[in-house]
Every structure is written in C-alpha cells, then in structure tokens.
Amino acid sequence: ARVLTQFLVFLYCKCLWRGLKFVIRKVTGRCELQRICYNNKPGARRTLKIESSLKCSKNELLQSAVSVHPDAVEKTIDDIMALKKINPDTNPQLAISLQASLFQIVGYRNLVLEVEKLRMEPYDCENPKHEEMLMKLWKALRPESPLTGRISKQWCEIGFQGSDPKTDFRGMGLLGLHNLLYFAEHDKATALQVLHDSLQPKHSKMSKADWEKKKFDKAIGYSFAIVGINITDLAYSLLMSGALKTHLYNVAPEMPSLVHFQQTFCYLMQEFHRFWIEEDPCDIMEFNRVRTKFHKRILKQLKNPDMALCPHFTASDLHLVNL
Ligand SMILES: *[C@@H]1O[C@H](CO)[C@@H](O)[C@H](O)[C@H]1NC(C)=O
C-alpha cells in the first residue's frame, strides 16, 4: 500500500508539473526550451538543461533529437521550431542557441562511441600504424637517447613494466597509447616534467640529510606510462558516466571531439601528479587510495556547472582546435 501511495503522489506531482508548465507557457508565451535558453548562459548550464528537457519530453521528435546524426541537427531544429510553433524570423537567436546546444549533445554521444572504439582496439605489434605511434612516443619522451631495439629494457625508463610495452596496453587498448602520445607531443613541457619527477625516488620537501638517509630505500616514484594508462581509465569512466559533460560543454562550444578528450587527459595527468606529491604516499602500494581520492575530488568539481578542467590550455588554443 505504501508503494501505491508513493506512486499516486508521484503521478499527482507529475500532473501538477505538466499543468504548471502549461500555465507558464500561456502566461509568458514561451515554451520550456525557450525559457531555458533565455535564463541560462551558453555552455554546460544551458546545454545540460536542454538535454534533460528533451530526454524527458513525451514528444517523439524531442526525445529522439538527442540521438540524431550531427548532419541532421539543423533539420531537427527546424522541425522543433515548427512543432513548437515558434516563428524563426521573430526568434532568430533561439534557433541558433538550440542548434549550438544540440551539436554539443550529439557531439558528446559520438565522442563516447569513438573513445569506446579506440579502447576496444587491442595494441597489435603487426600493425605498422600502432608500432609507429609507439616509436613516436619514445622519441617524444626520450629525444636524446635512441632505442637500441624494439624489445628493450629501455621502455622501463618511460614507465612501462618490461621490455615490450604491448602487454601494458591491455586494459585500455589503443586509447592509452593515443592519450600518452598526445600528452607527449602536445603538452610536451608538462609531460617531460611529470616523467622526470616520476623517476625521482621521492617527491617531498625532505631536508638534504633526510634525502641522503632515504637514498637507498626503495624507489617511491611511479611508473609514468602505467599511470598514464590508468589515468586513461579514469578519464574514460568520467566520460562514460556523463560526468565530463559539464567540462566538455563548457570548453567545446561547437562540438566535443577526441582532441578535447585528450586535452582532458593531459589536465588529469598534471593534476594527478600534483595530487600525488601533495598526498605524499609512502610507496606505490598507496596508488589505489590516492587514485580513489583524486577521482572523488574531480567528480565533486564537475558537479559545478561552470567547471572547466583545463587551466593550462588557453582559450585561444581551444579555439584553434575547433577550426
Ligand atoms: C587503475 O587502477 C585502479 C585502482 O588501482 C584499478 O582498479 C583499475 O583496474 C586500473 N585500470 C587499469 C586500466 O589498469
């Protein structure tokens, strides 16, 4: 009986809400989509609301709008304007705003598919393209010291586990390699700094005497490439859960794409590194704890609809990417 009461209350609230929307529409002469655009600045604030309004709509056209192909966005907006009986000539800005938000929404959905595809593609040492990327990664991170062979202990210098990196990509497939290479080539100074620090036995504010004492203790740095692949996992789960929407809707005014995801990865690498030093773990056994805490912190930041995760990419960089 309690469940039934709850259900009836729910139904009642729902009807009340629909009735309220109807009244608001009659009074203001605006539909919900119009009000959202009118009351929220562009970016995550507006697009998140548009997205949930469309998804919750009982109209077929509005509901399916969020999953149209990017090529069909303009036509879909025309259809919505017609459905809502909004004259595009007297409301030119509305169509533009709705279109921008819908491009972001369908762009995010496509990005999810693209990222998933890369993750599902295993590293294949028979594939020359994969091998070439791996070699490029080495060159970007170790420009001064050429590899002595494809199978070499040198791979450990950039934080792989053994003499052949291919097995380390298992969890994240080609996505891990794409991210690491992007970081090494496009955010080079940061990547080299992070790699350098990760190779130090301990990153803390120890005095010189303490440092000497600790010198022969086990290394307390971390494996750069392995952590990079793991942070790829973190970025991937943020994307899949939808948590990255706030960030991507704020930094990609046209359409979130793979480049934005890779830039997010660069940011997460830099921030994780900073966080690792701050947390001052005893050794790598604490990785799980530090990672969980870091993940929670990022999730909390992403609850803020004004959040954008990339302070070290300037707006002009992002603009170039969008062109
Ligand atoms: C990353 O680390 C976490 C926690 O240690 C672990 O659960 C997860 O499976 C790792 N992911 C990858 C791809 O190695």
Automatic annotation (TrEMBL):
InterPro entries hit by this protein: ELMO_dom (IPR006816), ELMO_domain-containing (IPR050868)
Keywords: Signal
Superkingdom of the organism of origin: Eukaryota
Region forming the signal peptide: 1-19
The keyword Signal belongs to this UniProt entry's keyword annotation: yes
MF terms in GO: GTPase activator activity
Domain ELMO: 129-302
Keyword Oxidoreductase attributed: no
Entries under PANTHER family matching the protein: ELMO DOMAIN-CONTAINING PROTEIN 1 (PTHR12771:SF18), ENGULFMENT AND CELL MOTILITY (PTHR12771)
Official protein name in the record: ELMO domain-containing protein
